[in-house]
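Final report, closing paragraph on structural work. Over the funding period we assembled a curated collection of sequence-structure pairs, and we close with a single example.
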Amino acid sequence: QVQLVESGGGLVQAGGSLKLSCAASGFTFKNSAMSWARQAPGKRLEWVSGILADGSNPAYADFVKGRFTISRDNAKNTLYLQMNNLVPEDTALYYCGNVLYSNNRDEYRGQGTQVSVSS
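Its predicted structure, as stored:
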């Protein structure tokens, strides 16, 4: 069965950086598009970034474009999200999913990793 384990979250000051990781198992990672989404308290899940199976064509939501970078290591079955110049509005629980794009919480099956940005 699909298992996705996010890690790398934490508390950081505005302007700081974090790198999230997502360890994947239970499916053929190298053949699957992947994405990150996030959910802030009291808000709906929102898609953040997606990447194709071969690592090409990374796509980003406008609110993270130029600050976040998605990447993957197919040899390690791991997805990454480098987050720079963080702002308090980035505070959320971050999830990875084996889809290219979705705003459906059911598509993101991990427990998430908490990112908190202080002003």
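Residues 91 and 116 are 5 Å apart (CA to CA). The mean pLDDT is 96. We thank the funder for supporting this effort.
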